[in-house]
Amino acid sequence: MGFRFYDLASLPQQYDVVWCLYPRREDKLAPGPTARPTLVLDVQVNAELKVARLLVAYGTGEFDEGMHRKIDLIIDDWDEVRALGLHKPTRFALSAQSRMLLPWCVEYFVPPSYLAQCGIIAGALTAEQIGRLTECLAARGLKPLRRGE
């Protein structure tokens, strides 16, 4: 597949929420059918080739409050939901199986049609939300990636 990469100047930052055609497992790495919110966990740049990849965790509106509260980042306060450009409470699944490393390209990163004028980057986590993310990763026995690593 020949990717149409975005310019590096348009790269999101670590801990941004971006819209992604997140691949379904059964479709291998084919872009998914629906743009969904994903959380950028890491940004990897190849300056020589002028391309980048994002490590993203998918977001879903489906969650069990008790089961997921300590291990996944849940955004359910309506002020936080709106500030992140989301339309409903969202759980960002943080397991290794719920992450994908995808090229920063047109084929994977697009806003949903009803938000096309808003762009791909929906919002950015606050310091408090990053703290909650770090706690969730620790509960899973995972270390957060440091910015720029």
Tell me what you see in this structure.
The chain has 149 residues and is an alpha+beta fold. It has a single domain, classed as SH3 type barrels (Roll), CATH 2.30.30.110. It has three helices and seven strands. Strands 1, 2, 3, 4, 5, 6 and 7 form a seven-stranded antiparallel beta sheet that branches. The chain is globular, with a radius of gyration of 15 Å. The model has no long low-confidence stretch (mean pLDDT 90).
Main attributes of the structure:
3 helices, 149 residues, alpha+beta, SH3 type barrels, seven-stranded antiparallel beta sheet
Number of strands: 7
- Intertermini distance: 28 Å
Average pLDDT metric: 90
Number of distinct helices: 3
Give the CATH topology: SH3 type barrels
Query: What structural category arises from helix and sheet content?
Result: alpha+beta
Secondary-structure topology with pairs:
Elements: E1 16-20, E2 36-46, E3 51-60, H1 65-68, E4 73-75, H2 78-83, E5 90-92, E6 99-103, E7 121-124, H3 127-139
Antiparallel strand pairs: 1-2, 1-7, 2-3, 3-5, 3-6, 4-5
Sum this structure up briefly.
The protein is 15% helix and 28% strand.
